[in-house]
Amino acid sequence: MNLSFRNRIALHYMIATSIIVAIIFVVVYLVVKESMYQNIDKDLSFEASKHAGEIKLAHDTIKFTNKAEWEEIEHREVQINPVFIQIMDAKGRMMDKSPNLKNNELPFKNIETFGPHFNTYLNDKAIRQIQKPIQSDGKTKGYLLAAMSLEPSIMVLIKLRNVLIISYLLLLSVLYFISRYLAGRSIIPVKNITKTTNRITKNNLNERVDLPANHDELYDLSSGINKLLQRIENALERERQFTSDASHELRTPLSSLRGTLEVLIRKQRTREEYEDKIKYSLSEIDKMTETIEQLLLLARLDSSRKPDKDEGVLLPALIDDILLKHSTSIESKKLSVDFKNAFTSNVLVPKYYANLILDNIINNAIKYSKNKTTIHINLYDSEAGSVCEITDEGIGIKTEDIPNIFNHFFRSDALEHKEITGNGLGLSIAQKSADSINASITVKSNMGKGSTFFITF
Ligand code: ADP
């Protein structure tokens, strides 16, 4: 059965309430029935005891002493719920009976049913009866039977049962509508969420779900969705910013390239001038190519298409390789490298990601170092993991810029150092790679004196 959420809640309300009401109705019915029987039984016991004192035991017979008076009352008064009395001898033979029994006889039960009250029939009419032994000298001489009609009580019980069943059915239908109404009200926040989320597209991502007044589970759900929307909005905003920065970053060398070529074509130039301008244009093209490659790399790091199995490599060996790769720039700046390995065991790191991290950071250390200074690379174990510390004696980074250096295209003091080329993507790539292998990068810097990058694997 494919019930809506609202109807399912309503059904659960209904089932729970109808079970409780059914139990209450059954208990009410049973309590009324029991107290009716108790009242009849009390009356019967009283009548039996009263008439037991009006019996005369003779040799073989047992008779009532006041039968005449009794008949007189019978004539005079209308008895609404008469009590039938009958006397039997020990063998179950009828000895005497109240005048209201006329030709009828109360049924005699055998000896085991002494004491308790029981239901039976007199002339096809239901009666309640008690059977009391008549004793003399310690012997049972006979029995006194007292009975009352059960018809009025049964009628009351049938009426009560019908009333309860009808009111139960009415209650169920009323309950159905109330439950549907209440269920409808309680899922209003869910409907709001559906309405709002259906309305939201990437053009109106700033819309939010209305928070319900009560701080309950639906409030948590709504605020959870709002937080999710906020994160999506931030991510989209970052993406927009990134696209615009990337376009800008590529447009600048392109316009410079165009400008150079336009100037070049205006008139005849010397061979040296042509060579000079072409070399400049090629260097701009190289810059663009590098930026595009780094952008592609960033996109790859963001996507799920990352290398599944990144082979392990020994950290010192990886650093040696990177230093070798950059040896030309190290030599041209006359830098020395002070490399200390204090690892107590062989430290293996994922080659692809560790190379991206260290290559960018070592490349920066070289780029931003002052000539003829030293780059210190220290490897050591710490509680957090294996640390690679790279310190340069370079230009340093402004304290307020440190939190931004991992952002795309961020370049601190770029205008101050025009001779140092870059596009502000290297550390973003390093940070993304570190995130992929749960490594961390922290920075300490002293403006004008140098910077230290700590990479913990
Ligand atoms: P870039 O291509 O500009 O080097 P990065 O993302 O690698 O881009 O670095 C971002 C910015 O952080 C750099 O522009 C520079 O201002 C600063 N930076 C990074 N490393 C160093 C360093 N070792 N010394 C001084 N500044 C640094």
Automatic annotation (TrEMBL):
It catalyses: ATP + protein L-histidine = ADP + protein N-phospho-L-histidine. Pfam families: HAMP (PF00672), HATPase_c (PF02518), HisKA (PF00512). GO terms for cellular component: plasma membrane. Residues 245-457 form the Histidine kinase domain. Keywords: Kinase, Membrane, Phosphoprotein, Transferase, Transmembrane, Transmembrane helix, Two-component regulatory system. Its EC number is 2.7.13.3. CDD domains: HAMP, HisKA. SMART domains: HAMP, HATPase_c, HisKA. Signal peptide: none annotated. It is found in: Membrane. InterPro entries: HAMP_dom, HATPase_C_sf, HATPase_dom, His_kinase_dom, HisK_dim/P_dom, HisK_dim/P_sf, Sig_transdc_His_kin-like_C, TCS_sensor_his_kinase. The chain crosses the membrane at residues 12-32, 163-183. One of its GO terms (molecular function) is phosphorelay sensor kinase activity. The keyword Acetylation does not apply. It is an enzyme of class 2 (transferase). Its main location: membrane. The keyword Membrane applies. It comes from the Bacteria. Residues 184-237 form the HAMP domain. This is histidine kinase.
